[in-house]
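User: Here's a protein and a ligand (S-adenosylmethionine). What would the complex look like?
Assistant: Let me lay out the input and then the predicted complex.
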Amino acid sequence: MAPDRDEAVNAVLEPPCPEQIRREIREGLTDSPRRLPARFFYDARGARLFEEITRLDEYYLTDAEVEILGRRAARVAELVGRGVRMVEYGSGSGEKTWIVLGELEAPSAYVPVDVAREQLLSFARRVRERFPGLEVLPVAADYTRLDELPWPEAESGATLAFFPGSTVGNLEPPEAVAFLSRIADQTGRGEYLLIGADLVKNRRTLERAYNDARGVTAEFNLNILHHLNRLLGADFDPEGFRHRAIWNDERSRIEMHLVSLRDQVVALGDPDAEEVEISRGEVVVTEHSYKYEIDSFHELVRRAGYRPVEYWTDTDDRFSVHLLQSASP
Ligand SMILES: C[S@@+](CC[C@H](N)C(=O)[O-])C[C@H]1O[C@@H](n2cnc3c(N)ncnc32)[C@H](O)[C@@H]1O
């Protein structure tokens, strides 16, 4: 389906297509293990819950990445030069954007890309207010399926892609390689990527970060079911599932699950299609969060055609931020 254009916010808006989404959800739910695509966490409520997660004591990732960017954004600005076009994948609440944009010398444009449309558009408005001369070109779309990015009218220097939050860890490693290669294709050869990657650490810290005491992560996890009910007219019963997050040491990832609390049948909003049966104790995988060592992360980005330029960690060595450059043509 062709994207709409909302001139008021200058955004490319990709309309949801329930049939296609329903097919994708059915395919995931009937797979082994059963799974749901993590991008459906992020309706307006999911985006708000994620923001709340970033402020939790247990969720060390945001504090650590903010600390690194606060200390290193000026160095990034020096390396990428003047007049940069900054493209952010999964901009969310944009907390980290301010730190980087504020250091860049006369950036030409800011292009945030996110599926959480309302949050994206309100953030884009705030960026315009704070940087009146900057072209802000928000794109509301699934970034893994996006072919083209808008270009600013102003003449640009280098392109700096920004992919914070260790969101790269939510992709399976081969998907991460494919996605980073896609970023390199979208932004151009020889251009930059500033990316955050969470580091492997002890099980206790990792599991606490995804099982907070107040249960915000549990609500966020269950929100995927509320969102799909609204989007598809499905009838998931969020009370019929419980949140679980466990560290898989062998695969180096946190696994976020919804565990079925009883035998149940789910209709996906199409009266002619078969319902999905889920037994008590069965697991639906909603998200993996891969954690990397510096070397394993560099190996991954090299496979995507990127060269590490510099990288930094926080004072407690919990998180890493890397400036990468894609191979020149
Ligand atoms: C883990 S959050 C990170 C948010 C923010 N960048 C940060 O560092 O705190 C992931 C963000 O990416 C967006 N997102 C997740 N999957 C996406 C997809 N496939 N396409 C576009 N945006 C996506 C979510 O809406 C959310 O804002």
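Summary: The first strand starts at residue 4 and ends at 6.
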